Amino acid sequence: MLVDTDLSAYRIAAEPYYRPVGDEVAVFEAAWLHRLPVMLKGPTGCGKTRFVEYMAWRLHQPLITVAAHEDMTAADLAGRFLLTPEGTVWHDGPLTQAVRHGGICYLDEIVEARQDTTVVIHPLTDARRILPLEKRGELVSAHPDFQLVISYNPGYQSAVKDLKESTKQRFVAIDFDYPVPELEAEIVMREACVGPDLARTLVSIAACSRNLRGQGLDEGASTRMLIHAGRLAAGGVSLEAAVHAGIVLPITDDAEVREALGAAIAACLA
Ligand SMILES: Nc1ncnc2c1ncn2[C@@H]1O[C@H](COP(=O)(O)OP(=O)(O)OP(=O)(O)O)[C@@H](O)[C@H]1O
Ligand SMILES: [Mg+2]
Fold this sequence. Notes:
alpha/beta, Rossmann fold
């Protein structure tokens, strides 16, 4: 089977727009120097994926992203034998590709995956840096440029689904949250192509929604949602309609919470 050994399809050609909000770039670079595994913690839509894309570009590394889901098994990461007309052929999974050829493997929301995936991750994320492919009888030593990055949202897990202590303690963690208002407005301006006044209004709406966290809302409006609302408004939709479609409707199905959020937003817009 033809293997693309420099993983060129996974290289990021152009610099992704990423606005640093703290010392995350320096921390990641220091971790990369020692190929330490990194955990990005934070709520949805706050810039974790954009950050890892930016870092992969900055470090000239391919980026293989795997979105974890509850049916994901170790074989989905490591690989499996596939039946072909020529017989049974081994097919490297995305993790094995990064381990063999070098690059950043980003496991998004790893906690969603089945427990057996951690068995695969453990020997890779300690001093051994190896990936045992039991079915194939092979022990793959990680390429010098292999690095594992996972994302993890501490707010969403039940105790049953939380990462094991022995998994958590293998990672360097970088905490993400929604940026401070001036920075968030800068990001919304740039990503939604809107002016500074509209961006600031959207950011103040986000603050209102984030105050309702725990009072019917699991999360306030993310930076991603502000960008969506901004794009709708830039496309000619009225601000009220853009905020309704981009923020209020997607964030909750509860009529009462919607009303409370709507009232808080109306106060912001007044
Ligand atoms: N610091 C930032 N610099 C540039 N863009 C940002 C930044 N933070 C957020 N964004 C914007 O917000 C959007 C959502 O961010 P991203 O997809 O990285 O979120 P995430 O944290 O990975 O969310 P999830 O946990 O849902 O996957 C990005 O597409 C980007 O437009
Ligand atoms: Mg993401």
